[in-house]
Amino acid sequence: MSQPLSNEALAAARTAVIPKGHASGTACYVAHASGALVVDVGGREYIDFSGGIAVMNVGHSHPKVVEAIRDQAGKFTHTCFMVLPYEPAVRLAERLCPLVPGDFPKRALFVNSGAEAVENAIKIARYHTRRPAVVAFDNGYHGRTLLTMTLTSKVKPYKYGFGPFAPEVYHAPFAYCYRCPLGLTHPACDLACADHLEDFIVACTAPEQTAAVIAEPIQGEGGFITPPAGYFERVAAICRKHGILFIADEIQTGIGRTGAMFALEHYGVAADLTTVAKSLAAGMPLAAVVGRDEIMDSVHPGGLGGTYGPNPVSCRAALAVLDIFAEEDLLGRARRLGEILAARLGGFKERFEIVGDVRGIGPMIAMELVTDRHTKAPAADQAKALGRFCFEKGLVILTCGRYGNVVRLLMPLVITDEQLQRGLAILEEGLTALTS
Ligand SMILES: Cc1ncc(COP(=O)(O)O)c(C=O)c1O
Predict the structure, then answer these.
(1) What does the pLDDT average to over 388-392?
(2) CA 20 to 30 Å from 162, out of 12, 90, 266, 421?
(3) What's the gap in Å between 407 CA and the centre of ligand 1?
(4) CA distance 375 to 403
(5) β partners of residue 16
(6) Which residue among 56, 251, 364, 400 is best mutated to probe the pocket of ligand 1, counting the most ligand atoms within 8 A of its Cβ?
(7) 43 Cα–ligand 1 center, Å
(8) Integer Rg of the chain from CA
(9) Which atom number of ligand 1 is nearest to the Cα of residue 250?
């Protein structure tokens, strides 16, 4: 490549060749990145609280990942697993299957992206059950392909103008306690929203026509909506009772994000099928559907696959990621990070009226901003302004949620204490500026 252009020159150049629908949240064009730090083409350094949207749990350019990629790229980069298969995919499946919740034999199907994993989970569920309907949840996010966009709940920007959508997808209310869809309060509600799922299925799809219920253990794009303990136990029990498959979309929550390898571990529940992507291969394209052997094996030979999945370089990167978790006690670090963040964000909630709710598990944590704690009117403009303030000061954060008023933290788990404290201080300064 020739000499890199400045951020401004690249921003101007892209408008001529990249469609504006593929927008970027910042004008920072990355030159290099390491751990939790990103440096742009102008030499400016940023602390990264976004982790490439939950992809960089092991940190940018981890030396073990870089070495695995280099080594595999020097051997071969593609032969197509459907033509000439290779060892890294088999080894990765051997390592990944036991990590996914569920004390039963499993199989792993590898594909390239989160959306492709969700598409395949639904294909497999429909094939196995011979039923058409799928129940997803309000505020859920599952991707941008036709089926996954249909499963996704939020209209703008994900679905707006892109209809008609795929058939036989239905959305049920989720356990959004801060804004309970049933108007109740936890724990007095006794998890009425979980019980409501059964009524919903009877009324909207009929159990014997329902292939699967798909849920994120913590809704990511939807606003880090975190159901209370016991919720998924009931959801899984309803599914079991009616022969409906329970699919956990762990694409954002998985690979250590919540301080456990998979978030459903916190709920003591196993799904029939689990989708995995994002931090699995530290930024190399790779995703998986991991599920019960008899369900995964029900599909005829040739019914699943694709040209690229699983790319061998991505598999080697993923094996390195799993090594890093084992060798560097990254889950322990994630739990410690979670404690620090809970204390600090809890303090923000006490000090700043604008912080209406702090929620999440471990280091998958967010603040929902409101202009009025009583009415809970969403503070979307303020969330945007906070993002801009932080960026100006050298910190990258992300917003999410139905109203865009939730600030979520997804920093690499390898972030140093010093970087973490520096980033949190900027966030605090931003909240102070917003409210003064
Ligand atoms: C829970 C969840 N499912 C699916 C997806 C789609 O993944 P991808 O963007 O790799 O297609 C995402 C991406 O943000 C996600 O968070």
Answers:
(1) 97
(2) 12
(3) 18
(4) 14
(5) none
(6) 251
(7) 31
(8) 21
(9) 1
Nearest to 114 by CA among 76, 95, 140: 140
Cα 426 from Cα 353, distance rounded (Å)? 18
Distance between Cα 221 and ligand 1 center (Å): 9
Cα–ligand 1 centroid distance for 153 (angstroms):
13
Beta strands in 273-363 (DSSP E): 273-276, 287-292, 355-361
Residues with CB under 6 A from ligand 1: 53, 113-115, 118, 141-143, 216, 220-221, 249, 251-252, 277
Phi, psi of 168 (to 5 degrees): 65, 35
Reading the block at residue 297, the tokens are: 């094996």
108/121 Cα distance (integer angstroms): 11
Q: How far is the CA of 179 from the centre of ligand 1 (A)?
A: 24
Q: Which atom in ligand 1 lies closest to the alpha carbon of residue 216?
A: 1
Mean per-residue pLDDT, 315-327: 98
Who contacts 270 (Cβ-Cβ below 8 Å, separation ≥6)? Answer: 100, 101, 102, 103, 104, 236, 264
Q: Which atom of ligand 1 is nearest to the CA of 277?
A: 10
Q: Mutate which of 110, 139, 142 to test ligand 1's pocket (most atoms within 8 Å of Cβ)? A: 142
List, in order, residues 6 or more apart from 252 with CB less than 8 Å away: 53, 54, 216, 218, 220, 221, 278, 364
How far apart, in Å, do the first and last CA atoms of the chain sit?
47
pLDDT at 3: 65
CA distance linking residue 53 with residue 29, whole number of Å:
16
Helix axes 312-327, 330-351, angle to 10 degrees: 80
What six digits make up the tokens of 274?
Answer: 């689990």
Q: Per-residue confidence at 436, pLDDT binned at 50, 70, 90?
A: confident
Element at 176 (helix H, strand E)? none
Residue 138 CA, ligand 1 centroid: distance in Å: 16
Query: Atom 10 (ligand 1): residue with closest C-alpha?
Result: 114
The confidence score (pLDDT) of residue 435 equals 85
Mean pLDDT computed over 243-260: 98
Question: Which structure tokens are listed for 312?
Answer: 């061998």
